[in-house]
Write a structure and sequence with these properties.
Layout (H helix, E strand, L loop, with lengths): L16 H25 L7 E5 L4 E2 L5 E6 L6 H12 L2 E7 L9 E5 L5 H7 L7 E4 L7 E5 L14 E2 L5 E5 L15
Parallel strand pairs: 3-4, 3-7, 5-6
Antiparallel strand pairs: 1-9, 2-8, 5-7
Amino acid sequence: MSALQEQPRPHSRIHWRTPITMVVLLSVLVGGAWWGWESLTRSNAGPSCVEAKMANDRLTPKQVSVNVYNGGAKAGTAAAVAKVLAKYGFHVSKIANEPNGNKVTGIELRGTTANGPEMNLVAGQVKGRPKAVADARADHSVDLVIGSGYPGLREKPLQSIALPKDTTLCLPSIKPTQPIPSGQNPN
C-alpha cells in the first residue's frame, strides 16, 4: 500500500445560486423604489372640482355634494336627513357621525367659504339659521352637521340659487355610483 493517497481536488465549480438570488432581490428593491417614487410624484387622483359655467345662472341641488354628519342628534337623524336631501336632488356622499366627535347645537354647515352658493343652497333646505364655517376645502362639497336641537328641514325646499350673470363655479366632481350603459348620456 502506498502512504500517499490521492487528495480530493479543490472545488472549482462556482456556486451561482447566491449571486442570482441577490440580483433578483436587488431588482425587486429597485423596481419597488421606482414604483413608489412614480406613485408619489405623479398622483392619478382626478380633480377635486371642475370649473363649470352655470346654465341659466342658477345652482341646483344636483350640482352640490353633501356629507351629512350626526353631531349630537338622536341616532338615525343623519340618515333620515340624507334620504330627504337625496330626494331633493342633492348628491349625498357620506352619512356618518361627526368625524372629530364634536357635539353641535342646532345645525352647522362647513364648506369652502361661509357664504358660497353651495352653502346657501344647503342652508335653504333647513329651518332656522345654521352656523356656517369656512374651511377652504378644495372639493367644494358641503358638510351638514346635525346636532341636538335640530329644527328640521323645510316643507318647501329651496330649488335653486340665483347667481350673477356668466358665473363660473368649481363644482364637485361627482362620479356615478353605477356604470353608465354604453350609448347613454350621463347627464
